[in-house]
Amino acid sequence: MLAAPQELAYKLNTEAPRSARSYRGKSSARQKLKILALVLLALLLCFGMTFMTVVNVLMGYKITSIKQEINSLQRENERLQLEVARLRAPERIAAVATEQLGMAEPQAEQICYVPVEADARQMVALQPVVPATEIIAATPQSWLQALSRVLQQWLGSERVARASG
Questions:
Q1: What are the pLDDT digits (tens) for 101-138?
Q2: Which segments of the chain does DSSP mark as H helices, in order?
Q3: Would you list the domain boundaries of the chain?
Q4: What does the alpha-carbon distance between residue 28 and residue 93 come to, in Å, rounded to a whole number?
Q5: What percent of the chain has pLDDT over 70?
Q6: Distance from C-alpha of 114 to C-alpha of 117, rounded to nearest angstrom
Q7: Do 113 and 127 meet the contact criterion of CB atoms below 8 Å apart?
């Protein structure tokens, strides 16, 4: 057998170099980190979509309740408009005036038509002069209403007399 010098002998090394082993470990850790990041991102997206769906459903409930409130307010508005129309009816106003306020229909001699072009002096001159006692006797009123009418007529005639005189 020939012996080769020790220096030239080929050594079989079954162990991998350290740098390759550390590289595999680093790449494995990086892959695990990337996978973990992707899983966290997917979970975050799932939670975000769930949150948006819940917000959407809550807004739908709010919109439905507001629509119901609008419908009820519209019905109430229609009911109140009918009530206003009923209260403004001329027949009802006449009935309240005669029954509750003691008013009466005017007599033919109490009605005076005024031309459109007439000024204030002409209108006062066209009004029929009715003594206060006739007004009080003609319509049943309280004494306070009768007194106020007499004072209004008395003060009104004084103003006309001073203006014309």
A1: 889 888 888 888 877 765 655 555 555 555 555 554 55
A2: 18-87, 90-99, 120-126, 132-138, 143-164
A3: 19-88, 107-164
A4: 95
A5: 63
A6: 9
A7: no
